Amino acid sequence: MSISENIRQLAKAGLSTGEIARQLGIRYQHAYNVLRSASNSANIRPLRIAAQPEEKPELTTENLHRCGFRLSGRWILNSTGELTLDQPASRNVGVYAFAIDGIVLYVGVATMGLSRRLYFYGRPGPTQRTSVRLNDIIRKTVLSASIVEIYTAEPPDLEWNGLPVHGSAGLELGLIKKYKLPWNKRSAG
Fold first, then answer.
1. 84 and 35 inside one domain
2. Considering the entire predicted model, what is its pTM?
């Protein structure tokens, strides 16, 4: 039996396109294309729409504290109207989170050091799209009299089977995958 025939047979059995691709060890796009062309004929039901992903929970600052993050400062506007921190940040590599009223809205990793990464949010270059976007969001939030707190953590690097694992990058990705973080574009999926 050909792969295309297997795809059509599994679709008739009720499996979704993603389930078929995983079961057969093929690319999703291959399964999708076969089913799309087959759905134009009468013998295959239309493609099944994937179920909506479960709503991710909010990440609270209480949870961050419990897991070792610390409140490191707040965003303010200085006398010239620039976004800045109310106190100096660590120069170490780490993970940072922006929160309002106890709810975390954004997390990021600072591989160049926390103080340097946070500096770029206050004074973003024209090509730094994330920094420009968040500068605008944070500035508007601060102007509306809301307080944007900054929490940081400096997890150690690890090793897996003799290979290096970046602790901060792994923590950032884990938080993005698990929690609803509306200011993180990657969190939407």
1. no
2. 0.71
Whether residues 17 and 82 share a domain: the answer is no
* 44 part of a folded domain: no
Domain annotation covers residue 48: no
CATH of the domain at 126: 3.40.1440.40
- Is 80 in the same domain as 135? yes
Residues 6+ apart with CB under 8 A from 140: none
pLDDT in tens, the chain (189 residues): 888 888 888 888 888 888 888 888 898 888 888 888 876 654 545 455 555 567 899 999 999 999 999 999 999 999 998 999 999 999 999 999 999 999 999 999 999 999 999 999 999 999 999 999 999 999 999 999 889 999 999 999 999 999 999 999 999 999 999 999 999 987 655
